[in-house]
Amino acid sequence: LPHFHTSRHPNPWAVLIPLAILFVPLADLVSVVVIRTRRGQPFWIGDNNHASHRLVRAGFTKAQAVAILWGVAVVSGAVCLL
Questions:
Q1: CB under 8 Å to 73, separation ≥6 — which residues?
Q2: What predicted TM-score, i.e. pTM, was given to this entire model?
Q3: Closest to 20 (Cα-Cα) out of 71, 72, 68, 80
């Protein structure tokens, strides 16, 4: 199992693995903050610019949007296991 980086057990990926596992929510957070900032809106006030909403506006059903996001999450999590 992966463990944190120590001099006895060096693991340079110890910090990146949790970030990769959380790729979908972190990428969504960053993209929403960027969109709201560019529009001059406060980033702490909600809107419909999250990834799932954007996928539905692009023509996917709600179920397809969720499946796409789950698929990306599974792939990014699986990469961590390699």
A1: 23, 24
A2: 0.76
A3: 80
Q: What gap in Å lies between CA 64 and CA 52, rounded to an integer?
A: 9
Question: Which tokens belong to 71?
Answer: 């698929």
Is residue 14 within 8 Å of residue 2, measured between CB atoms? yes
Torsions phi, psi of 44, nearest 5? -90, -5
Write out pLDDT tens, residues 26-61. 999 999 999 999 999 998 999 999 999 999 999 999
Phi, psi at residue 57, to the nearest 5°? Answer: -65, -25
In 1-82, DSSP assigns E strands to: none
